[in-house]
Specification:
Layout lengths: L1 E6 L2 E3 L5 E9 L4 E9 L6 E6 L5 E3 L7 E5 L5 E6 L8 E9 L4 E3 L3 E5 L2
Parallel strand pairs: 2-11
Antiparallel strand pairs: 1-3, 3-8, 4-5, 4-9, 5-6, 7-8, 9-10, 9-11
């Protein structure tokens, strides 16, 4: 019903910046929360940032002040601007969407590697 496709991942040096995007298609009406999660090898998937339909945002403590989540007016695209990247930010980043009716969807993920 909803497809999420991430883009923008890649290799970046410590201190650099990267901007991820996630386009939603299909039955996008009714999407409430959009979020970014990440999962590093050997670790559990963790919430990085979320944004409500009203624009309220929440961030993991580890990324506050460095990452910014945003969404467009149509609420079908979200971005994650990542600045001052650290090696510990290396992970597969997943786009997430939650509908008002309780359905949720995941993107396939995009790899972000922060390394010198």
């Amino acid at each position: 019903q909803v497809q999420l496709v991430e883009s923008g991942g890649g290799l970046v040096h410590p201190g650099g910046s990267l901007r991820l995007s996630c386009a939603a298609s299909g039955s996008i009406f009714g999407i409430d929360v959009r979020a970014w999660y990440r999962q590093a090898p050997g670790k559990e998937r963790e919430l990085v940032a979320r944004i409500s339909s009203g624009g309220s945002t929440n961030y993991a403590d580890s990324v506050k002040g460095r990452f910014t989540i945003s969404r467009d007016n149509a609420k079908n695209t979200v971005w994650l601007q990542m600045n001052s990247l650290k090696p510990e930010d290396t992970a597969v980043y997943y786009c997430y969407a939650l509908t008002y009716s309780g359905s949720y969807y995941w993107g396939k993920g995009t790899l972000v590697t922060v390394s010198s």
